[in-house]
């Protein structure tokens, strides 16, 4: 149960950091941009926490794979569900948002 509590705290922190960035960088109605950010993080964050780090991988390998998953899966959601978002822009938005949340988590440790 402790792992779930830790995940929830990390997830809420991720949403607090990434959602404003995604909202600023995407186009369309505000509610839709916020929803896209939260949906994208709901799709990626549990996999990062409960799958990649449960695999028998070195920490660095799990980190690189999980962050790559986060960027690519969220970019896919922005491109497919966003209001006329190109793949290039979706990837850029996801990269900026995920870099910010990774940096924040690094600084908080």
Describe what is shown at a glance.
The protein has 109 residues and is mainly alpha-helical.
What does this structure look like?
The chain is an all-alpha fold and 109 residues long. It has one domain (2-108). 83% of the residues lie in helices and 0% in strands. It is built from 4 helices and no strands. It has helices spanning 2-25, 30-50, 59-81, 87-108. Helix 1 packs antiparallel against helix 2 and helix 3 packs across helix 4 (87-108). The two termini are 21 Å apart. 26% of the residues are buried. The mean pLDDT is 96.
Biggest sheet features: none
Low-confidence stretches: none
* Percentage of residues in DSSP E strands: under 5%
Radius of gyration: 14 Å
Number of helical runs?
A: 4
Measured between the Cα atoms of the first and last residue, the distance is 21 Å
Q: Calculate the mean pLDDT score and round it.
A: 96
The assigned structural class equals mainly alpha
Domain unit count:
1
Count of distinct strands? 0
Large-scale geometry: globular
Q: Give the helix proportion (percent range).
A: over 70%
Q: Can you write the helix and strand succession as a string? A: HHHH
């Amino acid at each position: 149960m402790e792992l779930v509590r830790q995940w929830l705290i990390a997830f809420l922190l991720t949403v607090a950091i990434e959602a404003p960035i995604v909202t600023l960088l995407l186009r369309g109605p505000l509610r839709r941009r916020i929803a896209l950010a939260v949906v994208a993080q709901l799709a990626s964050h549990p996999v990062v926490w409960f799958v990649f780090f449960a695999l028998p991988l070195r920490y660095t390998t799990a980190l690189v794979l999980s962050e790559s998953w986060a960027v690519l899966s969220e970019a896919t959601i922005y491109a497919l569900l966003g209001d006329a978002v190109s793949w290039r822009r979706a990837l850029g938005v996801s990269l900026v948002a995920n870099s910010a949340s990774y940096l924040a988590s690094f600084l908080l440790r």
